[in-house]
Design a protein that fits this description.
It comes from Cryptomonas curvata. The chain is about 55% helix and about 10% strand. The chain has helices at about 1-10, 20-25, 25-35, 60-65, 65-75, 90-100, 110-125, 130-140, 145-155, 160-170, 175-180, 190-195, 205-215, 240-245, 245-250, 260-274, and strands spanning about 15, 45, 50-55, 80-85, 105-110. About 30% of the residues are buried.
C-alpha cells in the first residue's frame, strides 16, 4: 500500500538491543542465565486476546515492571503457581519486551509499527529501560515521511521525548508533513496545538488552510474539525483567495462553516486598505 511504501523508504528496519552498559551489568547477565530454569517459573501470564500463556519467574517480572509486581503480589493466593490475566496485550510482543529487558538482542527486522507496538506495551507496564531504548531508535530515524504517524501514536505510549521531536519536525516542515498519509491520523487536539504554535513554518496561510482541509476530509464519513477553523489566520490570505477558493475547499453542504471567517477577513483587509 502507499502507506507501507512510504514507511519502508523513511524508516530503516532495525534490530533491537538494550545499551551495552545495561546488558553487560552482572545482574541482567545472571538473569539471562536463569531464564530457562523451568523450576523457577512460578507465574503464568495469560494473554486473553490471543489465548496464549507465558510462564516466568514472579520475582523477575516484579523487577522488570512495577505494574506486574502489583498484579502478581497484590492479592493473597495459596497456590504455588500465580496466574495473571492480561487483556488486549499481544503475547509475542510482550515476550519480546521481556527479552529486551533481560538483555537479549532481538535479531528480527522491526518496522516502525513494530517498535511503536513494543513501546506501547513497555509503557503500559512501566518498563522504563525498554521505553527509553525504543524511543531512541525512533528518534534517530525520525523523518518527514513517518512524522505524522509518530505524532499520532507517541503521546499515547508515553514517549514524551519522541512526541516533542515529532512535534518540532512537524512545525518546521509543516507543508511536507501535511502531504504524508500519516498526517490524517493526528488527533484533533494535537493538530489544534500545532496550528496555535507561532513557530509553525509555512510559505503562506493558504497552504495551512489547505492542509487543514485535507485533514478534515481524510476520515471517510462526516467532516471533522470544525472547532479548528478559528485557528486559521484568514486575514493573512489574499482577497482573491478568500473570495473564490476558501468556500470551495469544503463540501457544498459545509461551505457555510467558513462564511463568517471570510467576511471578517475581507472586512479587515478593506479597513486596512482604507
Amino acid at each position: 500500500s502507499k502507506i507501507l511504501i512510504l514507511l519502508e523508504r523513511s524508516f530503516t528496519m532495525v534490530h533491537l538491543a538494550m545499551p551495552r552498559e545495561f546488558t553487560d551489568h552482572p545482574l541482567p547477565r545472571r538473569v539471562r542465565d536463569l531464564l530457562g530454569e523451568e523450576n523457577l517459573q512460578d507465574t503464568e501470564l495469560y494473554f486473553k486476546s490471543s489465548n496464549s500463556c507465558l510462564r516466568a519467574n514472579g520475582f523477575l517480572l516484579s523487577m522488570c515492571s512495577p505494574v506486574l509486581h502489583k498484579m502478581i503480589y497484590g492479592s493473597f493466593s495459596e497456590s504455588l503457581t500465580r496466574h495473571v490475566d492480561l487483556y488486549e496485550v499481544d503475547g509475542k510482543a510482550f515476550g519480546k519486551v521481556l527479552d529486551l529487558w533481560c538483555g537479549r538482542e532481538d535479531s528480527e527486522d522491526n518496522e516502525l509499527w513494530d517498535v511503536l507496538a513494543l513501546g506501547s506495551i513497555a509503557d503500559r507496564f512501566q518498563i522504563s529501560e525498554v521505553v527509553e531504548m525504543l524511543e531512541k531508535v525512533i528518534v534517530d530515524q525520525l523523518s518527514v515521511g513517518v512524522c505524522g504517524d509518530v505524532l499520532a501514536s507517541s503521546g499515547g505510549i508515553g514517549m514524551l521525548r519522541l512526541e516533542e521531536a515529532a512535534r518540532r519536525l512537524t512545525l518546521d516542515r509543516f507543508e511536507e508533513v501535511a502531504q504524508t498519509p500519516g498526517f490524517g491520523n493526528i488527533d484533533e487536539d494535537a493538530l489544534g496545538k500545532l496550528l496555535d504554535d507561532d513557530t509553525l513554518v509555512a510559505r503562506r496561510e493558504e497552504a495551512v488552510w489547505e492542509a487543514l482541509v485535507a485533514w478534515m476530509t481524510a476520515d471517510e464519513g462526516a467532516l471533522r474539525g470544525r472547532a479548528l477553523l478559528p485557528k486559521i489566520r484568514f486575514p493573512l490570505m489574499s482577497a482573491a483567495y478568500l473570495s473564490s477558493k476558501v468556500r470551495q475547499s469544503l463540501p457544498p453542504e459545509h461551505a457555510d462553516w467558513v462564511d463568517s471567517f471570510v467576511r471578517a477577513a475581507l472586512l479587515a483587509k478593506a479597513g486596512a486598505a482604507g
